[in-house]
């Protein structure tokens, strides 16, 4: 029998650590699991995550657990914060370990690589019948860890679970809203990473502020078009999970996806740029999946497709720019753009 108020956070990188610290500081009994037992022991003794969140003093009450079974035993909520490429495998590992009444949440942004499946689809398939929620929105881990004001949103089909999880996180400097459009919330968080590369490339090429604003706006348009085709609600995409995170990541240099674009725009090779960033850069895998989903739904998303092509080295940033600027002249909003198809 799980204890509803107990939280197990899986993934001891920057975002998992920041969320675990936030919940523990809020008085939620919280355990943090990571795959690197040595790094976790070091965190337990120093009360710091020197690699991913240097500078943050971790709360005394946070418990570190390198054994996955022990970390999730009796937890009311398991919050997954591993990168998207590790998401499906961690669900497989969890399946035999969870109590029957443990709920699932995730703060990972992306899709299943190679299939374009949403993370909520993976959860429904591998851990069926449990309350499930996504936490997303404009939230750089470093700022949340520093107690700087932030707002996120928690979406679940189960309104009382969304509310329960939001209240575990909600704090004087951290607003947690709630909603029930899981697909829309996930799509915004995944697509903004791809679009952040586009504005990063433009800024790396020193194309100017007009170019940046144009890319953010037309990128938002791509998010809305794909979202509506998939059944997301436009207001979700215009909220924290879509527009909010798009603006943050396209303009804030703390964004690793934006920094990847900046480096590519300056002519740095992709492998070297990813190595220098040294943390997860979700767009590298997500761009393929956005284009895969768009193609499946008969949509042409030129900015996302351009990012994918640049990431694969199929075109240079200069060629990508030429292709975008050379597209046919047309109305900004063709009739019926936001109507469900
Ligand atoms: N950082 C942020 O500001 C935010 C991040 N996110 C999202 O959170 C997710 C995690 O990102 P973030 O914490 O920033 O990434 P980081 O690069 O900071 O950390 C990644 C963590 O995941 C671990 N990891 C990698 N592969 C596996 C695996 N196969 N199994 C278990 N653990 C694994 C790493 O462990 P190891 O050190 O051993 O490699 C590391 O602890 C991403 O989807 C990101 O988009 C969402 C909102 C904000
Ligand atoms: O998702 C994030 C902020 O909301 C973090 O963005 P990056 O992964 O680009 O650093």
UniProtKB/TrEMBL annotation:
Gene3D superfamilies, sorted: N-(1-d-carboxylethyl)-l-norvaline Dehydrogenase, domain 2, NAD(P)-binding Rossmann-like Domain
Entries under Pfam families matching the protein: NAD_Gly3P_dh_C, NAD_Gly3P_dh_N
GO biological process, one term: glycerol-3-phosphate biosynthetic process
Acetylation is among the record's keywords: no
UniProt: sn-glycerol 3-phosphate binding residues: 109, 137, 139, 192, 245, 255-257
GO cellular component: cytosol
Cited SUPFAM superfamilies: 6-phosphogluconate dehydrogenase C-terminal domain-like (SSF48179), NAD(P)-binding Rossmann-fold domains (SSF51735)
The keyword Cytoplasm belongs to this UniProt entry's keyword annotation: yes
Pathway annotation from the record: Membrane lipid metabolism; glycerophospholipid metabolism
PANTHER family: GLYCEROL-3-PHOSPHATE DEHYDROGENASE, GLYCEROL-3-PHOSPHATE DEHYDROGENASE [NAD(+)] 2, CHLOROPLASTIC
Family, as annotated: Belongs to the NAD-dependent glycerol-3-phosphate dehydrogenase family.
Protein name: Glycerol-3-phosphate dehydrogenase [NAD(P)+]
Annotated source species: Rhodanobacter glycinis
Gene name for this UniProt entry: gpsA
């Amino acid at each position: 029998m799980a204890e509803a108020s107990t939280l197990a956070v899986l993934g001891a990188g920057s975002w998992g650590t920041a969320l675990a610290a936030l919940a523990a500081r809020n008085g939620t009994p919280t355990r943090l699991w990571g795959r690197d037992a040595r790094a976790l022991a070091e965190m337990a003794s120093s009360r710091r995550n020197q690699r991913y969140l240097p500078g943050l003093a971790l709360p005394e009450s946070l418990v570190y657990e390198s054994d996955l079974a022990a970390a999730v035993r009796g937890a009311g909520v398991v919050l997954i914060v591993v990168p998207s490429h590790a998401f499906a495998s961690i669900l497989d590992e969890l399946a035999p370990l969870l109590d029957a009444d443990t709920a699932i949440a995730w703060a990972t942004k992306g899709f299943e690589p190679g299939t374009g499946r949403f993370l909520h689809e993976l959860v429904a398939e591998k851990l069926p019948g449990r309350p499930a929620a996504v936490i997303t929105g404009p939230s750089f881990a470093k700022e949340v860890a520093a107690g700087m004001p932030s707002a996120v949103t928690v979406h679940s089909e189960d309104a009382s679970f969304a509310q329960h999880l939001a209240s575990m996180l909600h704090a004087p400097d951290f607003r947690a809203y709630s909603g029930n459009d899981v697909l829309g919330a996930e799509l915004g968080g995944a697509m903004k990473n791809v679009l952040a590369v586009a504005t990063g490339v433009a800024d790396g090429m020193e194309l100017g502020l007009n170019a940046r604003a144009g890319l953010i706006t037309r990128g938002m348009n791509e998010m809305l078009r794909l979202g509506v085709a998939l059944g997301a609600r436009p207001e979700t995409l215009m909220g924290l999970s879509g527009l909010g995170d798009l603006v943050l990541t396209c303009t804030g240099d703390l964004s690793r996806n934006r920094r990847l674009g900046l480096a590519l725009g300056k002519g740095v090779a992709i492998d070297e740029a990813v190595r220098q960033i040294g943390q997860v850069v979700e767009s590298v895998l997500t761009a393929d999946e956005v284009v895969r989903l768009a193609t499946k739904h008969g949509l042409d998303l030129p900015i996302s497709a351009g990012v994918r092509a640049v990431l694969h080295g199929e075109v240079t940033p200069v060629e990508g720019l030429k292709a975008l600027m050379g597209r046919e002249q047309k109305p900004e909003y063709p009739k019926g753009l936001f109507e469900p198809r």
